[in-house]
UniProtKB/TrEMBL annotation:
GO terms for cellular component: plasma membrane. Residues 3-244 form the ABC transporter domain. The lineage of its organism: Bacteria, Bacillati, Actinomycetota, Actinomycetes, Pseudonocardiales. It is a peripheral membrane protein. This is ABC-2 type transport system ATP-binding protein.
């Protein structure tokens, strides 16, 4: 088991420091989670749900108020050094890089912290820079990198120690669609290599594409853990009908909850399978031929549970 957390709780007082009269905020509320070795596991939830707090505890950046967590068999509090030696961390944003060093120098510095021999570090750094598309910019100062390039360097930095577990916290922030696609391929490669991946993201398509299982977190608690497809059962019985290029009013039909137009596709949310078939028959009766009943996506389930607020980044 790569990650085993039991009843993790993390509390703090609002504002700087532990103020005796401040409001106590519970970031994690007796959260328990298992992530088997070799799994790509997604953490989904709105801002403030506890995802990043959990990642920071697992990576030994924070200590829990109570509860226990083990990473690769090591206790994150009492055996923190053993955890750090086997863990790769990629946090979103631009912090954590040395801007006055080149991309290559950044990776060689981090390799030294993992006690990688210098000759091996040079070879490994070049391979990783090529792997994330920064091979030709390896000798440029990081301060000249775009935001997306810095994020790709973060990915390389997280892999320089050949970790058994990699924690990605919003790793595709600032990436263009091509770089985000390449990141998904990288995740697939890591899975093939036997690496365990823990991924937080607001990108539902990303989670659905790369995760073996996902955990929905709200209010510092686990709401559900399932495969992306299996989570469809949490969609409160909703069924969807999709049709291409229609201009027909279906909002008045029995059981229709919502009508969403996404480009040339109209998606009709219904409250039951029978209502979905009623919409399907209605459209077919009016000559629409490109129409289908589809299962809810991970994004549909997410919005059912958290509402539009949950999609905020």
């Amino acid at each position: 088991m790569s990650v085993r957390a039991r009843h993790l709780t993390r509390k703090y007082r609002r504002g700087k420091g532990w103020r005796p009269n401040g409001d106590v905020v519970t970031a994690l509320d007796s959260l328990s989670l298992d992530v088997p070795s070799g799994e790509v596991h997604g953490l989904l939830g709105p801002n403030g749900s506890g995802k990043t707090t959990l990642c920071r505890i697992l990576s030994t950046v924070l200590t829990p108020t109570s509860g226990t967590a083990h990473v690769l068999g090591y206790n994150v509090v009492t055996e923190a050094a053993d955890v750090r030696a086997r863990l790769g961390i990629v946090f979103g944003g631009e912090r954590g890089l040395y801007w006055k060093l080149t991309g290559r120098q950044n990776l060689q510095y981090w390799a030294a912290l993992y006690k990688v021999p210098s000759a091996v570090a040079r070879q490994r750094a070049q391979k990783l820079l090529d792997r994330v598309g920064l091979g030709t910019e390896a000798n440029d100062l990081v301060e000249t990198y775009s935001r997306g390039m810095k994020q790709r360097l973060h990915l390389a930095r997280g892999l320089i120690g050949r970790p058994k577990l990699v924690v990605f916290d919003e790793p595709t922030i600032g990436m263009d669609p091509v770089a985000a696609h390449d990141f998904r391929e990288l995740i697939t490669e890591l899975r093939t290599e036997g690496c365990t991946v823990l991924l937080t993201t607001h990108d539902m398509a990303e989670a659905e594409a790369v995760c073996d299982r996902v955990t929905l977190i709200g209010g510092g608690r686990v709401l559900a853990t399932e495969t992306p497809r299996g989570l469809a059962r949490l969609s409160a019985g909703h069924h969807w009908v999709e049709a291409d290029d229609i201009d027909i009013d279906v909002a008045h039909l029995p059981g229709v909850v919502e009508v969403v137009r996404q480009g040339a596709v109209t998606r009709v949310k219904t409250d039951s399978e029978g209502a979905a078939r009623g919409v399907l028959d209605f459209l077919l009766g009016r000559g629409v031929r490109t129409v289908r009943i589809v299962p809810p996506t991970l994004a549909d389930v997410y919005l059912d549970l958290f509402g539009a607020r949950g999609m905020e980044v």
